[in-house]
Amino acid sequence: MSFGNYLTIIEAAKILKIRPNSLQRLCRQGDIPATRLHNTWLLEKDELEIFAKTYNPKRGGKKKLLRR
To answer: Which 3 state secondary structure label does DSSP give 63?
Structure first.
């Protein structure tokens, strides 16, 4: 498994402009595809880009979520 195409929670949260805790919650709930490796969530760059196009980070905003 190559980690070159994956982002950590902190890197992905900066791209989405949300708090890392919020992104961890989305990963735990299965709202965004992510892989858990020990205590770290890893997100694929391509899937994050697709998610970012439809995600509204504002509270109460409508969002389209990806499910596996």
So the answer is: coil
